[in-house]
Amino acid sequence: MKRNKVYDCSIIELPRIIERSGNITPVEPNNTIPFGIERIYYLYDVPGGAERGGHAHKELQQLIVAASGSFSVVLDDGMQKRIIELNRPYFGLHIVPGIWRELINFSSGAVCLVLASLRYDEVDYIRDYGYFKEFFDKKINQVPHL
Ligand code: TYD
Known about the structure:
This protein is mainly β. 9% of the residues lie in helices and 40% in strands. The radius of gyration is 16 Å and the shape is globular.
């Protein structure tokens, strides 16, 4: 198993249908999204100054979109950090497994839309930062040397 890095996470541009009366971004299972979508959820009514996230996932992949407003995502692979501001509903941030993430700086009225590769399962979460660093180091060391 390869340890994912913050630079394995990427911005994906979603399609846009632009009309004078408003725009549409359709998301369909196709080559644009690098995983099958099993769940959709969205975060809203986030109070000023609140921070979300603060965990990593063992297997889950996500595409995070600022469907309205803006917020920043702090990505951390245990070695390097990367901060990405999302502020357009046609850009999604693809987060690979094994990345600690924090969502900060929510604008008022922001909506964080998340497309997820798996159904909700608390077992997939790592919520302790010390354990996160240990967990993925252990996984790497389990790979047999050929
Ligand atoms: P969590 O993923 O920790 O939120 P965030 O990363 O936005 O801070 O989830 C918060 C709570 O909601 C937690 O008790 C689990 C629950 N939850 C579900 O029941 N189903 C879901 O699909 C999600 C995302 C969370």
